[in-house]
Amino acid sequence: MIRKLTLSLLLSAFLALSVLAQNKIEFKEFKLDNGLHVILHQDNTTPIVATTVLYHVGSKNENPERTGFAHFFEHLMFEGSENIPRGKFFEIVESAGGTLNAGTSQDYTVYYEILPSNQLELALYLESERMLHAKVDQTGVDTQREVIKQEMKQVMDEQPYGSFQREMPVRLYPNHPYNWPIIGSAEHLDNAKLEEFMEFYAMYYVPNNATLSIAGDIDYEETERMIRKYFSEIPAGKKAPYRPNIEIEKLKSQKVDVVYDNIQLPAIFQGYLMPKKNHPDTYALNLLSTYLLSGKSSLMYKELVDKQQKALQAIAFPNDLEDGGMFLVLAIANMGVDIDELNVAIDEVLATVKQEGIDQNDLQKLINIKETQLVNGFGSVANIAQSLAQGHVFYGSADYVNSQLDKFRKVTAEDIKRVANQYLNKDSRVVLKYLPKPTETTE
Amino acid sequence: MKRLYILFVFSLLASASFAQLDRTKMPEAGPAPEIRFGDAASFTLDNGLKVFVIQNQKLPRVTYSLILDRDPILEGDKSGMLSFVGEMLTAGTKNRSKDKFNEEIDFLGASISASSTSISASTLTKHQEKVLELMADVLYNPVFPEEELQKLKTQAKSGLASAKSDPSSISSVLTSKLVYGTDHPYGENETEQTVDNVTIEDIKNYYNTFFRPNIAYLAIVGDVNMDQAKTLVNKHFAQWKQADVPKFKYPIPQPPAKNVVALVDRPSAQQSVVNITYPIQNHLPSPDYLASQVAGYILGGGGSSRMFMNLREDKGYTYGAYARIGSNSLVASFSANASVRGAATDSAVNEMIYEIRNMRENGITQTELDAAKANLSGSFGRSLESPATIANFAINIERYNLPKDYYATYLQRLGALTVEDVNVAAKKFLKPDNMYITVVGNGSVQESLLAFGEVQRFTTSGDPEKQIAMDEGMTAEEVLSRFYDAVGGEAVIRNIKTAKIESIAEMPGMTLGMNFYYDENIGAYSNKVIVGGGVMSNTVMKDGKMSVTVQGQSQTLPEEQYEAAKLSMFIFPELHFENLGYGMVLDGIKDVDGQNAYKLTVMNESGISTDYYYSVESGLRIKTDGQASGEIAYSKYKEFNGVKYPMQMVIKSPMIPMPLSSEIKKVEFNKALDKNTFN
């Protein structure tokens, strides 16, 4: 079995979504006495149902001496429960005609199953087992620790440029838990005792820290009945989940460092601090990244990849986070292009936006692209379920899915120029120069 | 009132007793849901274009997919041409430059893509008029710019070069040639030569011949109604001119009369890519198509299949083992594949054949059937979320003349399958005595594979390896001695103690200088890579150490790496094989790009080997191939001070994205070197 649980890393992070007013996503919400928040969306067009449980715990909730715990749980939670034999989670779902996966970010951990709609009860059973009495034992911990060490090698060391997930945040967030990578430290995991895992489970894997969202071919009443059947008896957590309350300190000056990696082509990674996830400026920053790099006609693609051919590939990515995200601009150099020259070229493109801003036509294009992305996202009930849960947890309302496009529409061309100047600030950024680890000569 | 109260209590009790949850039992599935999906409406234009409209108003978006239904084409010496058509179509039109086209599409947040048999556009409904106009522009007015073709050719050639070092690519080229034959569209493969042969005229001819409405389907899926669709289609596609389109017939490939083992030797390989395969006739309309899919799933379809459980979970030979019974309207193939530990190659092949034979002879169980049905229905259900699936259904029904309710009854037919149905299909499609057993891996497994049939050797291009007889009595020493004579005589070259070699490599958009300095008196070597006048990297070996300086950052490499690269520090490494204690094995005569060459495998004490190839005719070294350095071809030998030295080197390495051809501009022997050269 390909038990590849994916860390929901930066570049594959789910887009939070929204649709047009005329395509409102209808949903129902209720809360169980134990604090479990439930969101249901009925869409009977396809006889499938996506069940998502989002736990409001990510790497930022970890003890700095025990980094990697949140992600560790993403693995541990497939070990089984009191009633599900070890290692059977996948087989049960797959032989019921379904598929499943999970992901961990700095802010949350999410689990989902997509099953034929007549198997909704199975999904609820499995998720309630996980929340009520998952198997947190020494065997599971020992097994998954080894698997995760392999995963660390794979995503951090083997994957080209993968180490930026460690190298960027450690420099950009000097005083905040975003400082360490989601996957954490092997040493911390080695030192952790079973009781610590049990404490983590008792604090965060509780109904009052979870959002259950279900989208697809369901009947509202019947679904609510089944949810109560499986989740009501799960006791609420006794201790309030720990959430860091730390204002992120801005860097006093630019940090530039060289990172050697198993790569063939050098690359530049620029990182800038973003405001908190629900700050209005995140929309302008999101559109700015679209302006820079989205499609063959975007500014940085045309300039760096097509015209100057200094970069083989370039990406701009606004990774918004609950306590303040990072705006990433990265470019992989073409063969033989000097790394400093590439960095200057990126800065020149950024300077153009900062000085000249964008015009109304550009802005309209950005809104059009965003609108299409948002609409397409709603082609999948799995995405809808996730977006509803994210809206509830991070934006104060599941209805966020319906209002997001309006937020983008409120952004003006001036806003984009302003946020480019305000946030893409050279004096408080991190620049990583990726260079190939020296290997043998070619002759 | 009282009555009501009691009822209330009763209902409370009822629900309370219901809530006594027995968590040891997994919930049963509810009744299977009815699968509902949009029906396609269709109409045909006078020019023959068949249009399907699948109305789906769930989201305000629409996709237009134009698909050509033509016979597969044998490309022959222009193989690769078809793969360029799509990019060429969208590289600009008579009305719009490439940049303008991209800008207009991006502005709408839409996308248009093309291939040799399709043009697809995807957009929000409100922009559909404009996007259809752009799509029609691509269809009617492409300009096929020459510079775009050159770019695509370069990309294709670097892809081919890297494919030769990628075992999975080698395996797929080899199996397609074996299963379908090289004179079949599914069995021909592009080469650098055939890619070079492609001209703009070829692409224009193809476009003019095959982009015709009478062989096309247009599927419109999404938020659009029939009237709107008719109006738009008439506006944009009614003027499309029909023309006769040639048809092609091909012989039906047959499985081999008995098992054949095909081996590609990759000396550096630690894993073997095993693919057991043969042609079959199986397609959607075949009565046992569904049963064949169930059989394939049980044999090797996923993480709980027989192949997977046996080879991975039980034996640990591999990370994954899979099998599938393919389907295609012309000819399909059975395939069972796994990447296995080299040492376990024959055991893995043995188990794979066992599973194929066992299923054919002993059939499947009811439990397996039930799990397979659940899984296949589940993926069918999930696939319906994508509107494109429904378009494909409509097109398949038309194209392959399937019953109108083919997909509507899919789950019902799947559900009705019995163990016996699947066993019949397994007997029909599994042919354990008529297979190509292909292995891409270390040649040392050859002996062990004899148990499965005659072993034939193939090149990395999937062609039969030429067996060339070598003279009796030929030795490694004699090959080297002929090499020395060919370059000017052993005494002469032993006398060369220092050298300075300057070379230039041209790459798209840049020039790379590579200078090599050798001083054998002090045992030092340096390789400087120069870009834009500055030294980008400098590799130095001296005093038993190797260090690399990149962009001012210097690093000393581990000893193993130095050992692996050590031979590079000599002007003629051959002179040092013996005194450095390298082992030499003469491994016969091989075909190196059309030249017969002696192959000499040279191995250091830790077992790292490099293959040296010397032309039988001239005695000159024409190629080296090693794990550490990649492949280097030497040619255009020229004489300096009585010593011949190659003026061209082509380097192919997994470390660089494309073959690097470097021309040697300057050779100086036995001249004093600047004393800072090796610092």
UniProtKB/TrEMBL annotation, chain A:
Keywords (A to Z) from UniProt: Hydrolase, Metalloprotease, Protease, Signal, Zinc
Family the UniProt entry places it in: Belongs to the peptidase M16 family.
Annotated protein name in UniProt: Predicted Zn-dependent peptidase
Segments forming domain Peptidase M16 N-terminal: 38-161
InterPro entries reported in the protein's UniProt record: Metalloenz_LuxS/M16, Pept_M16_N, Peptidase_M16, Peptidase_M16_C
GO molecular function: metal ion binding; metallopeptidase activity
The keyword Metal-binding belongs to this UniProt entry's keyword annotation: no
Organism ancestry: Bacteria, Pseudomonadati, Bacteroidota, Cytophagia, Cytophagales
Keyword Zinc found: yes
PANTHER family attached to this UniProt entry: NARDILYSIN, NON-CATALYTIC MEMBER OF PEPTIDASE SUBFAMILY M16B-RELATED
Domain Peptidase M16 C-terminal: 193-368
Signal sequence, start to end: 1-21
GO biological process, any: proteolysis
Automatic annotation (TrEMBL), chain B:
GO MF: metal ion binding
Database matches in SUPFAM superfamilies: LuxS/MPP-like metallohydrolase
Keywords per UniProt: Signal
Keyword Signal attributed: yes
Domain Peptidase M16 C-terminal: 197-376
Stretches assigned to the Peptidase M16 N-terminal domain: 79-167
Signal peptide (from-to): 1-19
InterPro entries recorded: Metalloenz_LuxS/M16, MPP/UQCRC_Complex, Pept_M16_N, Peptidase_M16_C
Pfam families to which the protein is assigned, alphabetical: Peptidase_M16 (PF00675), Peptidase_M16_C (PF05193)
Name of the molecule in the record: Predicted Zn-dependent peptidase
Organism from which the protein derives: Belliella buryatensis
